[in-house]
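anyone seen this seq b4? input:
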Amino acid sequence: FLAVMILLGLIIGGWEAKLHSRPYMAHLAIQRKEITYICRGFLVLENFVLTATHCNGDKIIVSLGAHNIKQQEQSQQNIPVRCRIPHPKYNRKTHKNDIILLQLKHKAELNEQVRLIPLPLAHQRVQPGTVCSVAGWGRTNALSEVLPRTLQEVDLKVLDDEACLKYPGGIYRNYNTRTMMCVGDPKEHKASFKGDSAGPLVCGETAQGVVSWGPDNGSPPRVYAKVSTFIPWLKAMMRRLQP
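predicted toks r here
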C-alpha cells in the first residue's frame, strides 16, 4: 500500500525549460500559520492566477516572470494576493475540486516574460494518448530534498480514466472521472512531483489540468484537476470580482 499525499510539487525525468518559454507560470510563496510553503500557479487574466486549493494559506505572494527563483531577476513581478476563492466543494480527503482562484492586488504588467495562458472550453475533453507538458520548480528526484533553481519541464501522456481507476492497490480509489485527469505513463519514469504542485498541464496552448495529487514515491500516473469542468464556476467568479 502506498500512502497518498498532497504534493508540494516536482519534475521527474524532465529538463530545464527554455528561458521565459512559459511566461504564464507563477511561483507562489504561501504563509500558513508560521510555515512558508511553495506552490505553482498560472496567470489566466491580468489579475487572476489559478492554482490548487491544497495550496491555500493565510497570505500568498505571487511571483510572475521568474526563471531562476533563487535570484531577483529583473523580469520578476511580485504581487500579493487580494482575495482567495477556493472551490466551495473542495474535499481535502478525496482531493475533489482541488482548484482555487487567486485575485491579485493589482494587475500584472504583460510583456515578453509575463503572459496569460488560455483556458479550455467548458467540459472539453483531452483525448487519451495526447502528449501534454507540465513545468515547475519541484524536486527532480523522489529521494532528493534539493530543489532546482530554474524552471524544469517534462512531456507527459494523458491516460484513459481506467488507468487510474483500475490501478492495483487502490491508490487511486478517490479518483473522480468528472473532476480529475489521469496523467503520466507508468512505464516511463516521468512525473510532476513535490514542488510542482498546482502547476498547469498544458495541452497545445491550453491549461487543461492542475497538478493535484498522486503516490508519495513520485511514480506516475499522477492526478490533475480537470480545468474544463470548472470553467462555468471560474468565469462566474472572475466576472463577480472584476473591478
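DSSP finds two helices and 16 strands in the chain. Helices lie at 161-165, 231-241. kinda curious what u guys think
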